[in-house]
Amino acid sequence: MTAEYQVHGDVAVITLANPPVNGLGLSTRQGIVDGLDRAQADAAVAAIVITGAGKAFSGGADIKEFGTDKALQQPNLHAVIAAIENATKPVVAAIHSVCMGGGLELALGCHYRLAAPGCSVALPEVKLGILPGAGGTQRLPRVVGVEAALNMIVSGETVKSELIGSMPGQKLFDKMAASPEALAAEALAFAQSIAAVRPLPLVRNLPCKHPEGDAYFQFARNMVKGMAKNYPAPLKCVDAVEAATKRKFADGLAYERELFINLMWTSESRALRHLFLAERAASKIPDVPADTPQRSIQSVAVIGAGTMGGGIAMNFLNAGIPVKMLEMKQEALDRGIATIRKNYEAQVKKGKLKQDKYEQRMALLTTTLDYADLKDADLVIEAVFEELGVKEAVFKQLDAVMKSGAILASNTSTLDVDKIASFTQRTQDVVGLHFFSPANVMKLLEVVRGEKTAKDVLATVMAMAKKIKKTAVVSGVCDGFIGNRMIEQYGRQGGFLLDEGCTPEQVDKAMEKFGMAMGPFRMGDLAGNDIGWAIRKRRYQEKPDMKYSKTADLLCEKGRFGQKTGAGWYDYLPGKRDAIPNAEVVKMIEDHRAALGITPRKISDEEIVQRLVFSLVNEAAHILEEGIANKASDIDVVYIFGYGFPIYRGGPLNYANEVGLFNVVQAMQRFAQNPLDDAKFWQPAPLLARLAAEGKTFN
Ligand code: 3H9
Questions:
Q1: CA 657 to CA 73: how far, in whole Å?
Q2: Residue 242 and residue 348: Cα distance in Å, rounded?
Q3: C-alpha 443 to ligand 1 mean position (Å)
């Protein structure tokens, strides 16, 4: 049983004990009900306290139980809350640290609530694509008012307990404890003080009205509709809270339950729940246990003050870690510093950063032209030109000067990290840290594990990623690692589609309608088409059999490198990012098509989406099978946080699971029949073929 029972004097204390956050799984729910029964049967007990062990009161329903039989087994959370409400002795919730979702709903079912300051209070279900399903939408408005409750429920955002405690007229907390440490003793004393009070107060009996009624909810609905876009849950939250103001409590509760169950079955909720677990799972490396010792990172050096180096440096400055930046020339350093300043100043102007914080961050930044000045850094990250010879020179220098035990990292996006490590005498200290541009904004960090990378280096950089608020995913060494290796196939399909009859605009629109932050051609213009060009030139040498469309090369030959040159697949006005279709580019594509003797055909958006997304899926299956990625969910995390894949689709592999792997393979077999496509590529990866044949998913 994951709830403990103790009696202190005449007060029984039920302690939720289901680490890490006291999720309300079956055994915890059963433990609460058993505790209530024991306390009521014991004549010496006058009142009951429910609290949580460790670092939470409760983080809510056990997310890992969703979709399993356990979630359905009695006592469900409704039954537990009913048992509390119907208890013959007063039940006091002693709340601390984290009180979220079902945890808050449980507390709202208690007769009294005592909260420690500093506790994070939320109904965050909407972030999982659902709504509070155990009375949260019906009880919270009764204790904090309709508007505050709707705000919390629709946003899912956390509010600190002391803030709620200070709201005039709030009835969520009957008392605030003096401190988290004082909570347990104060809860016992409070329980004794109200032990004899009858009738027992119930939140469900409080009134729930909004003075403007219909008008308010119409207004709220309009606001939420604009923001919710592809997510059904937020609008349902409005419906549920409105029901709290218009229906009898029991009817409102039943309506909430119906909405909750319907949302639970949506693909959007499955995607969000998948992503919640995937993001947390990404930080776990199968052969690097959680207790692996870590090296200390007190200072960082960055080689290269370009866009990438500057962005990387900002991450550490933001986290309060001193950075020393190295360049070959003073002018390059000056330019780099000016860019960092410009970025921070833009944040100050927007009110996102306080002036004194900006100054504190800049004070942590120093520069040098001399490698010897870097020697004491705990971590050095190289962000120089993407060419092996240049990397060799840098790593040889680093090997010569850096202190023993320093971690040497390369920000390479495609090059062989093992080769880079071999330029040093300390291959165990070398790792890839592939930041995504703009490095101070994008959440993804691909950690590239070399053949010799030491386990403590991996443990250290994974922990460091958390500190600088990145989501880190480990990739093995291969050309392009997880993300760029997959994007190459996606880009190739984009090229074939142009040859066969599409315009860049049609492809981009189809992908953006699917939910991508940007279609492939707008993305190329943003990243710089010359980068892909350089990679392709290398590929033409290394993989002469690989089939490519030549349109992207023709574009680059015209100098249309993208936004930075004001012209790429589209035109761009100075200082603006709007992509304006260009007739000459369309003509260039048509001429090339004619030169190849291809008669253009009308291609549906569905085909565009399937070819692009399933190309990611097939390459991902190879990546998984080769052990480059540890698990399927890591690949989804890479695509959501690094490539703008729609969150509500949960990543390419989650999407493939939703479509059904059998259907994915069928589509691939169709694409393989197209003589203008690459039939060899469309042979389903063995792993994919096997899973599809067995009726399984990537999970
Ligand atoms: C709900 O309550 C539905 C009801 O309305 C109706 C029911 C009928 N369950 O984030 P962290 C695990 S829906 C199980 O890194 P932090 C997490 O997987 C639920 N496990 O820590 C991870 O495990 P591991 C509504 C959970 O300190 C570990 O805890 N509640 C749950 O940065 C640490 O997580 C939510 O949506 C859970 N509910 O933040 C709360 N929550 O170590 C979602 C966490 O194996 N949770 N875990 O990887 C959070 O927002 C944060 O995790 C929390 C801690 C603030 C609690």
A1: 27
A2: 39
A3: 20
| Distance (Å) of CA 102 to CA 27, 138, 273, 326, 443 | 15, 13, 15, 51, 29
Q: Confirm if 609 and 667 have CB atoms less than 8 A apart.
A: no
The rounded distance, in Å, linking the Cα atoms of 234 and 244 is 16
Report the nearest-CA residue for atom 10 of ligand 1. 280
Considering only CA atoms, which residue is closest to atom 5 of ligand 1?
132
| CATH topology identical between 300-475 and 483-693 | no
- Residue closest by Cα to atom 43 of ligand 1: 59
Q: Does the domain formed by 300-475 have CATH 3.40.50.150?
A: no
- The reply to whether CATH 3.30.70.380 applies to domain 483-693 is no
Active-site entry in 4, 65, 105, 147: 105
Nearest C-alpha to atom 53 of ligand 1 is from which residue? 59
Alpha-carbon gap, residue 400 to 407, rounded angstroms: 13
Residue 56 CA: nearest ligand 1 atom is: 56
CATH T-level fold of 3-264: 2-enoyl-CoA Hydratase; Chain A, domain 1 (3.90.226)
**Mean pLDDT value of segment 474-499:** 96
Give the distance (Å) from ligand 1 centre to CA of residue 101.
9
Protein residue closest via CA to atom 17 of ligand 1: 280
CA of 330 to the centre of ligand 1 (A): 48
Contacts of 308 (CB under 8 A, 6+ apart): 383, 411, 435, 437, 439
Q: Ligand 1 centroid to 58 CA: how many Å?
A: 9
Residue of 4, 125, 542, 584 with catalytic role: 125
Q: Tell me the residue type at 309.
A: G
Ligand 1 centroid, distance to 470 Cα (angstroms): 18
Residue 316 corresponds to which tokens in the numbers above?
A: 């550490």
With contact defined as beta carbons under 8 Å apart, do 632 and 278 qualify?
no
Distances (CA, A) of 698 to 147, 483, 690: 42, 17, 11
The yes-or-no verdict on residue 352 having pLDDT over 90 is yes
Task: Annotate 434-465 with b (16+ C-beta within 10 A) or e (fewer).
Answer: bbbeebbebebbbbbbbebbbebbbbbbbebb
Answer yes or no: is pLDDT of 68 > 90.
Answer: no
**What integer pLDDT is reported at residue 1 of this predicted model?**
79
Give the bridge partners for 662, in sequence order.
none
CB 411 within 8 Å of CB 448? no
At residue 394, does pLDDT exceed 90? yes
Question: What's the pTM?
Answer: 0.94
Does the active-site annotation cover 268? no
Structure tokens that stand for 121 in this block: 């209070």
| CA diameter of the chain | 93
Q: Mutation test of ligand 1: which of 21, 58, 140, 270 has the most ligand atoms closer than 8 Å to its C-beta?
A: 21
Q: What whole-number distance in Å separates Cα of residue 522 and Cα of residue 504?
A: 8
pLDDT value of residue 699: 87
Q: Kindly list the protein residues whose Cβ atom lies closer than 6 A to any atom of ligand 1.
A: 20-21, 23, 59-64, 77, 98, 100-102, 105, 124-125, 128, 132-134, 136, 280
> What's the 55 CA to ligand 1 centre distance in angstroms?
12
Query: Which residue ranges make up each domain of the chain?
Result: 3-264, 300-475, 483-693
pLDDT digits (tens, 9 = 90+) for 122-142: 999 999 999 999 999 999 999
Spatial distance between the Cα atoms of 325 and 364, rounded to a whole number of angstroms: 11
User: How far is 555 from 587, CA to CA, in rounded Å?
Assistant: 11
Quote the pLDDT of residue 310.
96
Mutate to test the pocket of ligand 1, among 22, 27, 62, 63 (most ligand atoms within 8 A of CB): 63
Among this protein's residues, is 125 annotated catalytic?
A: yes
